[in-house]
Specification:
The structure holds 2 protein chains of 2 kinds.
Chain A lengths: L1 H18 L1 H30 L2 H25 L19 H11 L4 H14 L6 H33 L2 H26 L6 H11 L6 H10 L3 H31 L15 H4 L4 H15 L1 H9 L2 H9 L9 H11 L4 H5 L4 H5 L4 H30 L6 H25 L20 H31 L2 H43 L2
Chain B lengths: L22 E10 L2 E11 L4 E5 L6 H8 L7 E6 L2 E2 L4 H5 L2 E4 L11 H11 L4 H14 L15 H13 L5 E5 L7 H16 L3 E6 L2 H7 L2 E6 L2 E7 H5 L4 H9 L17
Parallel strand pairs in B: 3-8, 3-9, 6-7, 7-8
Antiparallel strand pairs in B: 1-2, 1-4, 4-5, 9-10
Helix pairs in contact in B: 3-4, 3-5
The chains are: A mainly alpha, B alpha/beta.
Chain lengths: ~525, ~270
């Protein structure tokens, strides 16, 4: 039976690869990435084993602890990463529970993360190769540590499954997880030069970790090498106890989930009509109210809202003296303006509601722009004004505002046209934002790039004028920028709504057909 | 069982004389890639009729109804609703239509109440009318208690019911319903049938697709059998079924029965 589950896992991998060439590309990339990380880990451990003796144990404990934490936490955040051999999928089969658990645990080692973990663990355990007894103890500890990681991961996902399956929780987790992931690289880059790693701190952290289930297995080798039998015994007890607790918790969670499969939880409730009660009772108002509700309630939109405060942070991180912060307003405006360029694709097949109603295209376009602008205009105003104060450019604030608002309005114009012409596969509501959609066609890419280029070109008048005004500090030019930005941008927006509306009148049924044909 | 409240009557007088059908499909064609889904379907749905559209899976029912409601452009052929060309003046004609498509999403991050309100406002109703009709429809569909629940958290049957409410809210003259009873519980289905019968009695026209023959035979007065993109038979239910039941007649028209002989091992006595 265990062999069966392993074979199943391999078959799933193979069939996944057969389904699409992109899966193969993803696998190759994964292997390359994993290989590089492995080289770093193994190389690092090899270096460590010939370096200062006092470093060996703390670093081994730290690296091992990171490995365990990664296994425990990542699957929870990125839910759906690997649920191919989830216990709940075996509910209808008469598989003995022990076999099921062993099979699933081993299946967790099939694949890139599993192989990386085993090799890394062996490398960490091998640090103590100078002392034969230490090496043996280190290897045993490392394998136990890998067990804590893999079994703990399974236990965590099984226990968390009923919670994580609640729609709201999953959505919040998914959004919350993406932002730190996106920022990690930048923050590390920013901090790399400035933080001096203090060996004492490292030592103390490792010392504490060594008494937890995270670090204890990795410390055994060092203790044995030092012939500290008492310490080694204590850590062995911690390790074995942790493994036992994990197995018991997991087993009971699986037992529960087998007889009581997780189901969708009590429903989200919202009293009253929300935006539908507040905006005018017209078709335009209704479309705007629906879009606004989605901006707040749909994680895909909420994600783009959540990224807005990140823009100044990224610009600040990329440029340490802070003078580029002046670009915060326009960049935010650009992103927010373009944010509705996939609006019809985001509707998915629910777009039929608009098609079946006696709705003219421009009404659809205008409603969506109003909803986006309700968030976009205040944000652009606040960010631009704040950046002017921070960079001491208050004198030319009108120029900055002219650029930001011009870019924002032009962005809405371009997006209104593009989203009426092109749809491409996007995450449907409820899917994990981690799953990237395959099959985004070349046409979709080209339309995005063409749209961006057109957008940049159309923004040129106010941008050029504004840059000149800022460089020269000319107040009349600054005010002229504001007028041009609002006037030209406004005219483009009107044209975009009318033209996009006509395109939608013509293309609407074809767009719906393309959406329905997506896998 | 809650009594169906007064639903909005279909607006406007019924056409003088039954000469102008509520829905006339003329030579509809539609191809997807190499597959011809609908190969020249022509149908007249008389005003005031309760019309059933039956056919096996993949017969082209959904494609036909999509073309009849403005959701899918036909490759050839015309659609007339009460004598007006749908694809020539879509905005005006869509006011007459209430649509319940199958296999599509709804804006399911809205609550049930919001979704019906949304449909009403898109059709240009004013706030008070929408509020009153939404309340009536929620009661009629037995969704009162779940009015402020997000539609994404509805069961399949509740989702059907709220979608049906959306199709009714603007008091259309022609209702086009694709599989309206799928996943709906028997009590709700009976309520919905009452609502639809009342609607037909007051002059409205309903066309439903289904593959439950029994239901169509009991509920509808007209029926069309389609298979492989063609109309095999059309007329009143009695005309189409003749002496036999609609189900037998359907199987006879469509064919494709296989006998159960191959699964001899499935008999429990064999071991």
């Amino acid at each position: 039976m265990v062999a069966h589950i392993l074979r199943l896992k391999l078959a799933l991998l193979r069939n996944g690869l057969r389904r699409s060439a992109w899966q193969v590309v993803a696998l190759v990339l994964g292997v390359v990435y994993g290989g590089v990380v492995l080289l770093l880990v193994v190389g690092g451990m090899a270096g460590l084993s010939v370096a200062d003796e006092s470093l060996r144990q703390p670093v081994a404990v730290l690296v091992g602890s990171v490995l365990v934490v990664a296994w425990w936490v990542v699957p929870l955040l990125a839910f759906g990463l690997d649920s191919t051999v989830d216990p709940s999928r075996f509910v209808t089969y008469a598989v003995p529970r022990r076999d099921l658990l062993v099979g699933i645990a081993l299946a967790g080692l099939v694949g890139i993360p599993g192989v990386m973990t085993v090799v890394s663990a062996v490398a960490v355990g091998g640090v103590q190769w100078h002392d034969p007894l230490g090496l043996v103890a280190g290897m045993v500890g490392a394998l136990a540590g890998a067990g804590v990681a893999v079994l703990g991961s399974r236990a965590a996902t099984t226990v968390a499954l009923p919670i994580v399956q609640r729609r709201r929780v999953r959505e919040v987790l998914a959004v919350a997880a993406l932002i730190p992931l996106a920022l990690v690289g930048l923050v590390v880059n920013r901090l790399a030069g400035s933080v001096h790693v203090d060996m004492d701190v490292l030592d103390r952290v490792a010392h504490v970790l060594g008494w937890t289930p995270l670090g204890a297995p990795w410390a055994i080798g060092g203790d044995v090498t030092a012939r500290a039998w008492g310490l080694a015994g204590a850590r062995l007890v911690i390790t074995v106890a942790s493994l036992a607790v994990i197995v018991i918790v997991w087993e009971s969670a699986v037992a529960r989930s087998l007889v009581n499969p997780p189901h969708s939880e009590p429903a989200g409730r919202r009293a009253g009509l929300g935006w539908f009660g507040r905006l005018p009772a017209t078709p335009v108002g209704a479309v705007a109210a629906r879009s606004l509700t989605y901006w707040i309630r749909d994680p895909r939109y909420a994600l783009s809202v959540a990224f807005v405060p990140v823009v100044p942070l990224v610009i600040w991180l990329l440029d340490r003296d802070g003078s580029n912060l002046v670009a915060v307003g326009p960049v935010t405006a650009f992103l927010m303006g373009w944010s509705i360029s996939a609006d019809v694709a985001y509707d998915g097949s629910a777009f039929w509601t608009h098609l079946a109603a006696p709705l003219r295209g421009w009404v659809d376009r205008a409603g969506r722009v109003i909803a986006a602008a309700t968030l976009g205009v205040p944000t652009a105003l606040v960010f631009t004004t704040a950046s002017a104060f921070v960079t001491h450019r208050v004198a030319v604030l009108p120029a900055l505002l002219g650029i930001s608002l011009g870019v924002l309005l032009t962005g809405y114009a371009a997006a209104s046209v593009v989203s009426a012409l092109v749809v491409y596969p996007v995450q449907q509501p409820g899917e994990s934002p981690f799953q990237t959609k395959q099959g985004a066609s070349a046409a979709a890419m080209i339309s995005q790039i063409a749209g961006w280029l057109a957008l940049v070109g159309l923004c040129l008048p106010e941008v050029v004028l504004g840059v000149v005004a800022i460089r020269t500090g000319s107040l009349p030019l600054a005010w002229a920028t504001l007028v041009v930005g609002l006037g030209f941008g406004g005219a483009l927006l009107a044209a975009g709504i009318v033209y996009g509306g006509r395109a939608l009148d013509r293309q609407g049924p074809a767009l719906l057909q393309r959406i329905l044909a997506f896998p | 069982m809650p009594t169906p409240p007064d639903l909005p009557d279909p607006t406007g007088p019924v056409d003088a004389g039954a000469a102008v059908p509520a829905l006339r499909l003329d030579g509809l064609w539609r191809r997807f890639g190499r597959k011809i889904a609908v190969a020249g379907i022509s149908l007249d749905v008389p005003a005031g009729s309760f019309y059933g559209l039956v056919g096996p899976n993949g017969a082209g029912k959904t494609t036909t109804l999509s073309m009849a409601t403005g959701l899918l452009e036909p490759d050839a052929g015309t659609v007339h609703v009460h004598g007006r060309d749908l694809w020539a003046e879509p905005v005006a004609v869509k006011r007459l239509l209430g649509v319940l498509p199958d296999g599509v999403r709804l804006f399911d991050r809205l609550t049930g109440e919001q979704l019906i309100t949304y449909a009403g406002l898109l059709h240009g109703l004013d706030r008070d009318t929408v509020a009153a009709r939404t309340a009536d429809l929620l009661t009629a569909m037995d969704l009162r208690a779940d009015a402020s629940t997000l539609v994404v958290d509805y069961s399949a049957g509740m989702t059907k019911k709220v979608a049906l409410a959306c199709a009714l809210v603007h008091a259309p003259r022609l209702l086009v319903l694709d599989e309206p009873f799928e996943a709906v519980d028997p009590v709700s289905a009976a309520n919905i049938r009452d609502i639809l019968h009342g609607y037909v009695a007051s002059g409205g026209t309903v066309i439903v697709s289904s593959h439950v023959m029994d239901l169509v035979q009991r509920m509808c007065d007209h029926v069309a059998v389609v298979a492989q993109g063609h109309v095999l038979a059309a007329g009143t239910v009695d005309e189409v079924r003749g002496e036999s039941s609609l189900e037998d007649r359907f199987v006879e028209l469509v064919g494709g029965r296989v006998t159960g002989e191959e699964l001899a091992w499935l008999r429990t006595s064999s071991d």
